[in-house]
Amino acid sequence: MLRLLLGVNLLALAVALVLASDVLSWPLRYVELAVWVEPLLLSSLLLLAMLRNALWRIPYVVAVVVVIGLVALQAALLADFWRFMGFVDGGWSSLLRAALLAAMAAALMLAYFDLRADALSPAVTEARLQALTARIRPHFLFNSLNAVLSLIRAEPKRAEHALEELAELFRALMRDNRELVPIADEIALCRQYLDLEKLRLGERLRVLWQIDDLPGELLVPPLMLQPLLENAVYHGVEPATEAGEIRIAFARRGDELQIVLENPVVPGGAHAAGNRMALGNIRERLALHYDLEARLEAGEANGVYKVTMVLPCRN
Fold this sequence. Notes:
Layout: H1 2-19, H2 26-56, H3 60-85, H4 92-119, H5 122-149, H6 156-173, E1 181-182, H7 183-201, E2 205-212, E3 219-220, H8 226-237, E4 244-253, E5 256-264, H9 271-290, E6 295-301, E7 304-312
Parallel strand pairs: 2-4
Antiparallel strand pairs: 1-3, 4-5, 5-7, 6-7
């Protein structure tokens, strides 16, 4: 719906530019067009939302013809109403012109959605998700092995236990990462990873979990939080001379799940540069899973680097 609203209004802006006598009169022409375009657009969206179940059950080509026909019919009826009220002049030709313009706009938007659907076909989306997840694994393996290697000589028993945990982690990593997983599994994987890092960093790494009435069956993308925790450890705790605390908070807000991750900022560190790849990777995976329904924000304030992720709640 958001793309339809923006797309049709952009078309109206383009038409207003063509009709305007000069650039200064362009906004006025757009406002005049909007008086006709917006009621038609909103009424068409309402009608199509009411008919969506019926449209899904018929062949695609037939549905396209039906949608274009309905939009054209609504445009003609609206133009006839404006003519009846005395706001516009013209005969049947004006009604036909309104219907044709609306049909062309509907056809352009449907063509855009068709191209977008091809670009985001299941095969392409799955391949992209696999590629993005594959980028995380080598970095994750490198850091985890370093944590174990630091213990082999000094504390072989703890190193053996760490290797067992690492094996469990990689059993989870070898799963199919194209599907959403229960958030309880994602939290368990993150706890295992942080346990490995604690073996290496000891008391310097402090972790505070805040989970408020979070149903474990909520589904989230796999390996969504672990790369952010890895960057929080690497940039916010490891370079510091004193202990650093990482805070992970989960909260459900209506139909949305909010996840907040905070870590200290070490003066002189290159936090933003090092974190950019993980943030970009996760943003792209969220877009592939949720489109416009999810968002990821990050920034530094008062010596704390904060990442906020908002996802739609799905069971």
